[in-house]
Each structure stands twice: as C-alpha cells, then as structure tokens.
Amino acid sequence: ITLMCSESTLGYVVEFLLHQQGEEAEVPACPLPSKDFQELVKDPWCYDLLHRVLTKSLYDLVALTEAANYMHIESLLHLGAATIASRLKGRNLKECQDFLAQAPPRVREQ
Q1: Relative to the CA of 93, which of 20, 35, 55, 101 has its CA 20 to 30 Å away?
Q2: Structure pTM?
C-alpha cells in the first residue's frame, strides 16, 4: 500500500512528531463535550497546528488525518477527526453539508 500525500502534508506530520518527541498527544474525550475545539485540545501547540492546517483548507486537514491513519499515529488521527467533528457539532444538516462540501470528493462519497 502506498500513501499518496503532498509534501506539505508530510511536513505537518514530521512537525507533529518532532513536537511530540515520542510521546502521545492528549486527545479530546469522545463524544466531544464542547464544540469549541480550542477548549478541547490541552496542548496549545497542537491546537495551533490543526488550526493552521484547517485555515489552509479542509482538504489539507482531511489529508493530514488520512496520513496519520495510514502511519498509525493515533493521537494525530484522533485530533484531526476531533477538529472536523467540533466544526460539525451542533450544526443543522445544511450547515454540515456546506462545511463538508469543501472536502475532497472521495471523502464526500463515504
């Protein structure tokens, strides 16, 4: 199996791993107790990374989460998924559809 990811996605993964220095990042509780992602993430550095990626595009956040899944980086996988979930929590169907319309086509199909 080959992981196809951009250089920037791989850069985010490396940046995350270097910051964690072999330690697992603390992940938000499930189900999310709040829709405010900044309240959910204990490490401000992790929040800044994920916010920076999401600000670039939802596609980049999905790609980062997929890369974390493929590379078995559980904490990054859960943080990426929680970032997306926090953006959807408490929204109506139309708002969720509008948000997810920004995602790559293969994600929308699932």
Answers
A1: 55
A2: 0.84
